[in-house]
Design goal:
The chain is of the alpha/beta class and 377 residues long. It folds into two domains: 8-184, Spore Coat Polysaccharide Biosynthesis Protein SpsA, Chain A (Alpha-Beta Complex); 229-375, Rossmann fold (3-Layer(aba) Sandwich). It has helices at residues 35-44, 59-65, 83-92, 113-126, 150-153, 190-199, 202-212, 237-248, 297-306, 318-330, 335-338, 354-375, and strands at 8-14, 29-30, 33-34, 50-55, 72-75, 100-105, 130-135, 138-139, 143-146, 173-177, 229-233, 252-256, 270-272, 286-290, 311-314, 341-342. The strands form three sheets. Strands 1, 4, 5, 6, 7, 8, 9 and 10 form an eight-stranded mixed sheet that branches. A six-stranded parallel sheet has the order 13-12-11-14-15-16, with helices on both faces. The protein has a two-stranded antiparallel ribbon with strand order 2-3. A hairpin with a 2-residue loop joins β2 (29-30) and β3 (33-34).
């Protein structure tokens, strides 16, 4: 197992209850090995010096089935209170001589050891407080934290990840481009796992995933347009609902996501698998809804603002929205510019289901378009 004199630890978060999987996610098998074993083996093959694994739900079963040699185990008895408690438990256990820590997720078995090494090398080079990997503009995991921000992590509570501190360090964050789609892939549903099992070995899976990320199905056009356009960043059930309703309203629909497949969103006109709005061309009637679940909220809103979009909305709760806007303000965006961002997205109609949220957002877009139309001479 490669080792170096670098002082970077890895905190592997494996305390979740996996309620949506119906079984301990850490122990679900891929290539005849548990998912957590894949993750630990990848970390062991990197230049990480110290490994801390945070367990919670099913801790006894995990310790029985996983090879935990040269790993320090911390059991978070408060795991049900959310990720923040596991982060605190893991960071508290990092060796005192470590100057940084990689926050590694137990359900991301495809992150390459070379990517971990690249994050460590970038921290050594730049002395950044936070290093975040990005695949084609989309932010992923793991994140590297400098020891100087550990005290902030220790103040986190509830179901809050380390991204909560990102907005406090706009000049201390480095986004490192990597050619590793594994940073975006987590195993969140049994369907995800079954799909990966059906592909074959690891090399075959990586090739399949990279092919999905290529711009080859429906190329975007860089020409100018004035037709009403809806751009949705994300590909979940809300994106599908937005696309379906927007088509009824005669919008051109573009989805921005590195992994979306044409069959997933049949109503979509265009797919952009790189977070680069310049590839869309200009359109004064562009309406952008950011529903990336934190993957690239700030980056997508920044691009929407710079491209003078007619409408910009963030699907997030008010607290998360305030964090995003504060981070953008620290980047130099004025209060007047940020006032254009609707957060939470949509009209306040008590929407809860994806279709209801989509309806509230598109109602707000239609209302905005009508209001602007009346203001024109």
């Amino acid at each position: 197992m490669p080792r170096s004199d670098s002082a970077t630890a890895a905190v592997v978060l494996a305390a979740g209850s996996s309620s949506r999987m119906g079984a301990p996610k850490q122990l679900l098998r891929l290539d005849d090995r548990p998912l957590l074993q894949h993750v630990l083996d990848n970390v062991r093959n990197s230049k990480v010096r110290d490994i801390v694994v945070v367990l919670g739900a099913s801790a006894e079963a995990v310790q029985h089935e996983i090879d935990l040699r040269d790993v320090r185990v911390v059991v978070n008895e408060n795991y049900q209170q959310g990720m923040g408690t596991s982060l605190k438990a893991g960071i508290s256990a990092v060796a005192p001589d470590a100057d940084s820590a990689l926050i590694v997720l137990a359900d991301q078995p495809f992150v390459r050891a070379t990517t971990l090494n690249a994050l460590i090398a970038e921290h050594r080079r730049s002395k950044a407080k936070i290093v975040i990997p990005a695949f084609r503009g989309f932010r992923g995991n793991p994140v590297l934290l400098d020891r100087s921000v550990f005290p902030e992590v220790l103040k986190l509570a509830g179901d809050i990840g380390c991204r909560a501190i990102f907005g406090d360090h706009p000049k201390g964050i480095v986004r490192l481009p990597v050619d590793d789609i594994g940073i975006l892939l987590d195993i969140d549903r049994r369907d995800d796992l079954e799909a990966l099992r059906s592909v074959g070995d690891r090399a075959g899976r990586e090739q399949t995933l990279l092919e999905r990320a290529e711009l080859k199905d429906r190329q975007v056009s860089t020409g100018a347009s004035i037709a009403p356009e809806l751009v949705v960043v994300g590909r979940d059930a809300l994106a599908l609902a937005l696309a379906r309703i927007a088509k009824v309203l005669s919008f051109t629909v573009t989805v921005v996501d590195p992994l979306v497949e044409p069959g997933e969103l049949p109503e979509v006109d265009r797919v952009l698998r790189e977070l680069d709005f310049s590839m869309l061309g200009s359109n004064p009637n562009r309406h952008v809804v950011v529903a990336s679940r934190g993957v690239c909220d700030e980056e997508a809103i920044e691009q929407a603002l710079r491209s003078n979009s007619a409408y910009i909305a963030l699907v997030a709760n008010r607290k998360r929205g305030e964090e995003v806007l504060r981070g953008l303000q620290l980047k130099g965006f004025t209060s007047e510019m940020l006032a254009q961002v609707r957060v939470p997205a949509g009209l306040p109609i008590g929407a809860e289901q994806p279709e209801e949220i989509a309806l509230s957002i598109l109602a707000e877009i239609v209302s905005s378009r009508k209001r602007i139309g009346k203001q024109k001479p």
